[in-house]
């Protein structure tokens, strides 16, 4: 038994070493570098935005810096498969890096907020391309045995950016050099473009077909409506905004079913489609993660933690995702397939734990710190544990000829679900009384937020079971 354990560990180490040796090493650097650039930009800009507003004004448009960035990121992700087919991996990365650099340059030079918002939209489009291209290119440059590890590496990259980004942004903000934050991205982007062009394959598939313009327009419309709804304070206005988004979503689904140019791979909207179950599991996981945005506020208001401490406790969710991915990325066969079902259980347990302990203020923070931190980390760990194998399952279930579209759709659905979840979290928190500015209102919001959002991983358990039972996923286990 001991020999089997040693052999398994040696095989795992060999797999990781293979990912960082020979030609795989430079491919790993390019793919993780693109994701790191997108992620670092998100956290750096979030940190320096107060300095931006103090310098060039535009406080009324503060939230739109994120809104336009996310909307453009979703658009970029949705179009990444087409760019990959037309320009090849190397060309697609170079184009994405160029777009990202132009957006960063516009932000660095912006004299007023409207121009900075335009730069943020361009940045978001390029960043969405970079993020989605990573999932599309993994299956092109690595053998199937390394796919899960490569996906785990991407997760680790994002988790690292969660810690590094705010610290780097804080340095720029501390010295009043917010423009330098954008300038600093340009040389990194140039290096990424050069490496991608010189190392990634340039083979094109020549794929053609009509653009899904109607679906893309509806998708962006939904994101904008949800973003605006999240900024409203009146309950009736929020409900109206979410209702409008649901109507647009129904129209989106109907359009996708009958369109010649599809946003998703063929057959995805069929209830029996393996992709439908996998994408649903991804969406529910991302929705369940969104109450995280209120963790720093609740820790400060209910438990008197400093902004720095509260921020890093909230970051445990992202670190949990990284830990989960690195834990399971080398698993294979039935063990790997079971992570797809096991992941939502961790999310459910984590959210219920937060709902139980976050509102407790009488016992003191020391009494609840350990279970609360474990609950926060568990939410991310569950998603990370399943993530490498959900993504590889999408690769396996993709219709022939639509592999790039299936891979790009992962990011599109991930970002869209995050936007939906954030809007619903805002509405839930406001309805629960967080706007009262009292400890009672914050406590009520904590219970409703994390308790209600536990429904997402609960539903995710059912969709994950459906996905892991599909023959495509079981066939993948045998190979």
Automatic annotation (TrEMBL):
Record flagged with keyword Membrane: yes
Transmembrane stretches, start-end: 29-49, 61-85, 92-115, 121-138, 150-168, 180-200, 212-232, 238-255, 276-297, 309-331, 343-368, 374-398, 410-433, 445-464
Record-linked Gene3D superfamilies: MFS general substrate transporter like domains, Multidrug resistance protein D
Pfam family for this entry, one: MFS_1
Record membrane topology: Multi-pass membrane protein
Subcellular location: Membrane
Organism from which the protein derives: Sinorhizobium garamanticum
Name of the protein in question: MFS transporter
Keywords: Membrane, Transmembrane, Transmembrane helix
PANTHER family: MAJOR FACILITATOR SUPERFAMILY, MULTIDRUG-EFFLUX TRANSPORTER RV1634-RELATED
InterPro entries: MFS, MFS_dom, MFS_trans_sf, Tet-R_TetA/multi-R_MdtG-like
Transmembrane found in the keyword field: yes
Residue intervals of the Major facilitator superfamily (MFS) profile domain: 27-469
């Amino acid at each position: 038994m001991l020999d089997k354990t040693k052999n398994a560990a040696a095989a795992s180490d060999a797999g990781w070493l293979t990912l960082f040796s020979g030609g795989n090493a430079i491919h790993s650097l390019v793919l993780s570098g693109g994701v790191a650039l997108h992620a670092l930009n998100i956290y750096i800009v979030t940190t320096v935005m107060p300095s931006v507003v103090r310098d060039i004004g535009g406080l009324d448009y503060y939230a739109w810096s994120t809104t336009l960035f996310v909307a453009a990121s979703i658009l970029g992700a949705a179009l990444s498969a087409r760019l990959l087919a037309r320009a090849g991996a190397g060309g697609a990365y170079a184009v994405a890096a160029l777009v990202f650099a132009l957006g960063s340059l516009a932000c660095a030079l912006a004299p007023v907020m409207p121009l900075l918002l335009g730069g943020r939209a361009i940045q978001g489009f390029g960043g969405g391309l970079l993020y989605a291209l990573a999932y599309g290119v993994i299956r092109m440059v690595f053998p199937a045995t390394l796919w899960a590890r490569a996906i785990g590496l991407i997760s680790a990259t994002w988790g690292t950016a969660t810690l590094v980004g705010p610290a780097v942004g804080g340095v720029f903000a501390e010295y009043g050099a917010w423009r330098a934050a954008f300038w600093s991205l340009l040389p990194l982007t140039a290096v990424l473009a050069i490496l991608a062009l010189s190392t990634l394959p340039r083979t094109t598939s020549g794929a053609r077909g009509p653009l899904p313009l109607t679906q893309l327009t509806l998708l962006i419309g939904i994101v904008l409506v949800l973003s605006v709804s999240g900024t409203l304070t009146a309950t009736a206005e929020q409900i109206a905004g979410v209702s409008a988004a649901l109507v647009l979503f129904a129209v989106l689904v109907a359009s996708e079913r009958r369109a010649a140019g599809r946003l998703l791979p063929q057959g995805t909207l069929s209830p029996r489609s393996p992709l439908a179950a996998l994408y649903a599991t991804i969406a529910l996981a991302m929705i369940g993660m969104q109450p995280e945005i209120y963790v720093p506020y609740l820790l400060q208001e209910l438990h008197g933690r400093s902004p720095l401490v509260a921020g890093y406790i909230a970051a445990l969710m992202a670190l949990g995702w990284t830990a989960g991915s690195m834990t399971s990325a080398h698993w294979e066969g039935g063990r790997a397939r079971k992570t797809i079902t096991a992941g939502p259980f961790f999310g459910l347990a984590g959210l219920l734990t937060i709902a139980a302990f976050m509102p407790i203020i009488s016992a003191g923070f020391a009494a609840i710190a350990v279970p609360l931190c474990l609950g926060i980390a568990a939410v991310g760990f569950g998603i990370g544990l399943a993530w490498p194998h959900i993504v590889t399952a999408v690769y396996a279930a993709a219709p022939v000829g639509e592999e790039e579209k299936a891979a790009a759709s992962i990011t599109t659905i991930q970002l869209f679900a995050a936007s939906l979840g954030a809007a619903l979290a805002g509405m839930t928190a406001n309805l629960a009384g967080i706007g009262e500015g009292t400890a009672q209102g914050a406590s009520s919001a904590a219970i409703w937020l994390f308790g209600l959002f536990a429904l997402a991983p609960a539903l995710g358990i059912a969709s994950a079971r459906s996905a892991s039972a599909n023959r495509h996923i079981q066939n993948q286990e045998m190979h």
